[in-house]
Amino acid sequence: MQQREEKQLESSLESIIQRVNDLKASLSSMIMKIETEYETLNWPKFLDNYALVSGQLISLSKVLSHDKCTNLRNLTVLPLMLSPERDEQLVQMTEGRITTFSYDLVPDYLRTKLEPLAEQKMMQLELKAQNLQYDNAQKQIAAYQKVVSHVWDIVNKAREEWEVEASSRGSTQQNSSVADTHLLVAAVGMGKNLKMGGNPNGQPNPTSGGMMVAPQGRPGGPPGQGPIPPSTQAMSMNKAPSAIKTNIKSAAQMHPYGR
Amino acid sequence: MSTLGTAIDSLTAAMKCNILPNQEYLLQGSVLDQYVEVLLHRLRGLCDNVDSGPETFNDHELCYSLRINSANAPCILPLRVRRALDVTDAPFQLRYVGQPELGDKNRPTVVRSSIDMACSSTILEFLNELGCRLDFEYISRGYMFRKGRMKVTVSKIFKMNGMSNKPSEGVEAISQSYLVELSVQAPLGQDAIAEDMRIFAEQLRPLVQLEKIDYKRLGNMMS
Any coiled-coil ranges, and where (chain A) (predicted)? Predict the structure, then answer.
């Protein structure tokens, strides 16, 4: 009989330790993230971590409340020997947190009851709760529920408004037009709709359509083959209009060169 | 001649060492006129030049093409000249952009080869003498933002009504939207920047859908 109980205790302790270790690992990774990645950490990531921790807490409490699990409250931990000396094994086991198993530390670490101060406070509160009139309690609960439901309503309303706004923005507001994009890109890239203005003599340009798009039109190399002479005379700007005029004149004369 | 020789030598050396930013990573989109303020506000928050505010520009772009009649493969070399209308002492910019390459689905941006150089206003005359023909021209006015190596431009494109000598008069906006471009100029093989661009573009949604635009399909669609 006793042997069976011992076995049960051992297995339940093992599963508890495993859960606690999982919890510890995810807590430490979360702390690590907060300390090292606080610049890039965003809310979704943080909440993911939080959800992991709370899930592990729930599974731990499930293990603890399971029927097969020995009720730990009924067990006693009895310190057999205290020593002020440094205990290497203990250091290793606690990952460097506790170095000695001594008088001033043991009461804190092996505590099974609340701290006296906290316990006193709990007692006071419990006493107060017991002395409360039933009607009074009901009234307080009702008031509290009223406040909570009011806040709930506010949050719900805000969410609804937000969702409506988001959906309307997503569907109706059109900020750009694909047709305009194509028009502009074709104009800038290939001179679509711009050519008439650029051809003062009105001569239709036979290759205008395929000028930039013709696949065989790919130039063999960079335009470096015609050496661009470094401009020797620095033109002052008042000469620029004359350059443009030349350009019109020669656009009309250009065909003898072109053909 | 010797100076020209050394210039070309150093250019070739630079190309060999792969330090020339000759690739442009590009995403394009647009935003309707009435939402451009919202976009500018968001860009002000996202980009580097917060204190100085967005840089404005008012540029005239002339797109030339040069036909090279070699025996077996005639090819067309597109060249673009851009000049600032608002900053009169700024140099002109000559630019070559190659065919946009879409790549596969995993590549976040369009990549095209691109070479930029500063030049004086004589470039227009020079290109004409070279036999280049003016294909089209337009005015681009808008705002420029920077975010690291990324450049964001939000610009309105205006058609010119045949008055090339007075580029700021008689212009007409070609659409009710602003063109939005996100680009980076980088040497060959720095594909990691494209991923940064994708992430940045993601932050502008749904205000602007910055996308890889397929020029070939666009050409077929618009014609």
Answer: 120-147
Q: Any chain B CB within 8 A of the CB of A221?
A: no
Q: Are A64 and A16 in contact (CB under 8 A)?
A: yes
The SS3 call for residue B215 is helix
Count of A-B CB contacts under 8 Å: 212
Closest Cα in chain A, distance from residue B53 (Å): 23
Q: Tell me the CA distances in angstroms from A226 to A51, A186, B8, B116, one per residue in order.
A: 67, 28, 11, 15
DSSP A77-112: ------EEEE-HHHHHHTTTS--EE-TTTHHHHT--
The structural domains of chain A, ordered by start, are 1-75 (1.20.58.1710), 80-112 (no CATH), 114-167 (no CATH)
Name the token pair of B215: 């020029």
The Cα–Cα gap between B223 and B219 comes to 6
Is the CB of residue B84 less than 8 Å from the CB of residue B59? yes
Q: Computed over its alpha carbons, how large is the radius of gyration of chain B?
A: 19
- Which residues 6+ apart lie within 8 Å of B132 measured at CB? B64, B65, B66, B79
Q: What is the pLDDT of residues B124-175, one digit of tens each?
A: 999 999 888 898 899 999 999 988 889 999 999 998 876 556 656 677 888 8
Count of positions (residues) in chain B: 223
Report d(CA B215, CA B101) in Å as an integer: 9
B120:A233 CB<8 A: yes
Question: Which CATH number does B25-222 carry?
Answer: 2.40.320.10
**For A153-178, how does the pLDDT look when each residue is reduced to its tens digit (9 = 90+)?**
999 999 999 888 877 766 556 778 88
pLDDT tens, residue by residue, A19-71 = 999 999 999 988 888 888 888 888 888 888 889 999 999 998 888 887 776 67
- Phi/psi at B211 (nearest 5 deg)? -135, 165
A185, A208, A246 ranked by CB distance to B128: nearest:
A246
Spell out the domain ranges in chain B. Answer: 25-222
Distance, CA of B130 to CA of B127 (rounded, Å): 5
Residues A23, A49 contacting (CB under 8 angstroms): no
CB contact under 8 A, B99 and A218: yes
Token pair for A256: 């003898």
Helical pair B192-204 and B36-46, crossing angle rounded to 10 deg = 130
Residues 6+ apart with CB under 8 A from B216: A213, A215
* Residues B121/A237, Cβ–Cβ less than 8 Å: yes
Instruction: Provide the ipTM.
Output: 0.83
And the tokens for A6? 């011992």
The DSSP code for A64 is H
